[in-house]
Write a structure and sequence with these properties.
heterodimer, A: about 450 residues, alpha+beta, Rieske Iron-sulfur Protein, Naphthalene 1,2-dioxygenase Alpha Subunit, Chain A, domain 1, 14 helices, B: about 170 residues, two-stranded antiparallel sheet, 3 helices, 8 strands
């Protein structure tokens, strides 16, 4: 099949064939085998030999600090007969022993097996049979990423414009991961979930209208986090030049800080002080910019690392992974990251708000789930699949800057700044996906 | 195992059966009334933590699927009542089976610790079904001749949920 026909560039109609099971294996190889993938956070493994298991695409990997505390990532597969070595979500061990024949590995190296002399007669080259190691691993503000492509650009180059957003709005206070991600199944293709976080602020008002209604009626103020009348933008990072990361609800103005303060007041004087100091540091850090964004709220780092809750101090930073599980199924992991410097009452509230909102049993995610379930039923059937998806919103207006002259004055914010409602980031998502799928190798 | 009088065992089983019936028939307000004002309703996530080849259940503080008080449970109920919560349009068909009920006295004479097992089948759109299986550890409190739930700790058998959750357990 000619992949080029899947995305009709001038009119941005995206063929439903991009979700076909027949492209899935190639996608795992070309997208998940080539891109930097988020694995977890270094606060999960503070000491030598601490480990956690993660997924890169469908591959189980072990993320472990070695004896010298360096973070290394291994394929969770014994070199002898392919058995999984590590069976736990996390732990600490200096060696992994395979349950089949007992081959044992320490810091990735094969160190021994039963009857080494009798069975192998000293002819087995242990050094050539260490665990398969992910060639590129990088830690960015505690966030651990891995990449199977030894020739890939550095993580910072891959993030590109996104660095400024992550640095200033996500990792600025330092993050601490709450043990145990939520894990649930979404009955749809991972791309529909990823591009939703990258660029779909448009769905919020209708899909999540039940939550908006409750909050506007003043029910449970703990969950309120968007000030009324706030000005916000969407962002296409690396627009036309690299991996398409997207950010939603990049807010400006004082209102967001005021809303955070209104929450802090109910939690105690130490919380008020912390929110004020956090804001002061933020203003200081962004002093070169005429207009200082308060934060973005949601986003996606290509391909499958989504973010939520970044725009509010009382919302945990949700680090979400959309692991592909076939063409029509995604395993979603939601990690809660709280801010290291926050007082305990803020950390507790951060966990609570994420859990109540964009989480497996929250007020928000189940409505997304329902939409994707219905969409996926239509992806599977013959006539329905012929009808492409529409990504035409404001097509041809990408060059327009949605900011007022005062807001865009001075040193520019990185990336392409888009109106709140835009599909430009989603178009970038599929164009880049296609580019990876079409690459020679 | 501590034994309680058969009459008490029956009374508590009847209470849990009634509770399941309220949830299965969508009487969420009546269900809420069975929870004390100071209720704590939790469902922690599961993780397997190991050292070498032995594993154990996660005992340290973890992220939860539910960690609710009465106010947030009421918020969840009100969301469904808006009529615009897509996850419950049309309303799910649910069938709860509650079994293996063990009753033990708690510290106060009016309270009992009750462990029960459950299976909840949820049907969406007449073609998509999810099953949740697990156990609940409840603290039940006598109130006005009836019972109320003061604490509920839910432990799902599943680590990877079959879907998101917009129902109660």
């Amino acid at each position: 099949m000619n992949l080029q026909t899947l995305i009709d560039r001038p009119s941005a109609q995206i063929s439903n064939d991009v979700f076909l099971p027949s492209h899935y294996e190639r996608e795992i190889e070309r997208v998940f085998g080539k891109c930097w993938l988020f694995l977890g956070h270094d606060t999960l493994i503070p000491k030598p030999h601490d480990y956690f298991t993660a997924f890169m695409g469908e591959d189980s990997v072990i993320v472990q600090r070695d004896a010298k505390s360096k973070i290394r990532v291994y394929l969770n597969k014994c070199r002898h007969r392919g058995n999984q070595l590590c069976l736990f979500d996390r732990g600490n061990t200096s060696a992994f022993t395979c349950s089949y024949h007992g081959w044992t590995y320490a810091d990735g190296a094969l160190t021994g097996m039963p009857f080494k002399r009798e069975a192998y007669r000293g002819e087995l080259d242990l050094a050539a049979h260490g665990l398969i190691e992910v060639p590129k691993v990088a830690v960015y503000g505690g966030l651990i990423f891995g990449c199977w492509d030894a020739e890939a650009v550095s993580l910072e180059d891959y993030l590109g414009d996104a660095c400024w957003y992550l640095e200033n709005f996500l990792i600025r206070e330092g993050l601490e991961l709450v043990p145990g991600p939520q894990r649930y199944t979404m009955p749809t293709n991972w791309k529909l979930l990823a591009e939703n976080f990258a660029g779909d602020d448009y769905h919020f008002v209708h899909t999540h209208s039940s939550v908006i209604q409750l909050l506007s009626r003043g029910q449970d103020k703990r969950l309120q986090h968007v000030p009324e009348e706030v000005i916000s933008f969407s962002v296409a990072a690396n627009h036309g030049k690299g991996a398409p990361h997207g950010f939603l609800e990049l807010r400006i103005g004082e209102e967001s800080h005021q809303m955070d303060l209104s929450h802090a007041v109910t939690l105690g004087p130490d919380c008020v002080e912390w929110v004020k100091e956090r804001y002061r540091l933020q203003q200081e850090r962004l002093k070169e910019f005429a207009t200082k964004p308060y934060s973005f709220h949601a986003g996606n780092i290509f391909p499958n690392f989504a973010l939520i809750g970044v725009g509010t101090t009382t919302y945990a930073k949700g680090l979400i992974l959309h692991h592909p599980r076939g063409a029509y199924s995604t395993e979603v992991w939601v990690w809660a990251a709280v801010e290291k410097t926050a007082p305990p009452a803020i950390k507790e509230r951060q966990k609570f708000v994420l859990m109540q909102r964009q989480a497996a049993a929250g007020l928000v995610a189940p409505d997304d789930h329902e939409n994707f379930l219905r969409i996926t039923d239509n992806l599977r059937s013959h006539e329905a699949r012929k009808q492409p998806f529409h990504y035409d919103m404001a097509l041809g207006h990408d060059a327009e800057d949605p900011r007022s002259p005062e807001v865009r004055a001075g040193k520019p914010w990185p990336g392409k700044i888009l109106p709140k409602y835009s599909e430009a980031s989603q178009r970038d998502f599929y164009r880049y996906w296609l580019k990876l799928m079409e690459a020679e190798n | 195992m501590q034994r309680v009088p058969a009459e008490l065992q029956t009374e508590i089983q009847q209470f849990l059966t009634h509770e399941a019936w309220l949830l299965d028939t969508g009487k969420l307000r009546d269900w809420l009334a069975l929870l004390t004002e100071d209720v704590r309703y939790r469902m922690p996530v599961r993780a397997t933590v190991g050292g070498g080849m032995t594993g154990g259940t996660d005992k340290e503080p973890v992220f939860c699927l539910f960690d609710d008080d009465k106010k947030s449970l009421e918020m969840r109920t009100m969301r469904i009542e808006t009529g615009t919560a897509h996850a419950e349009i049309p309303a799910s068909v649910t069938q709860r089976l509650v079994t293996n009920v063990m009753v033990n006295p708690a510290e106060s004479a009016d309270e009992f610790d009750v462990v029960s097992s459950f299976i909840v089948y949820q049907e969406r759109l007449g073609r998509h079904g999810s099953t949740f299986i697990g156990k609940r550890s409840d603290r039940l409190r006598r109130s006005n001749g009836g019972w109320q739930i003061a604490r509920r700790e839910i432990e799902l058998a599943q680590t990877i949920l079959p879907s998101t959750i917009s129902i109660f357990f």
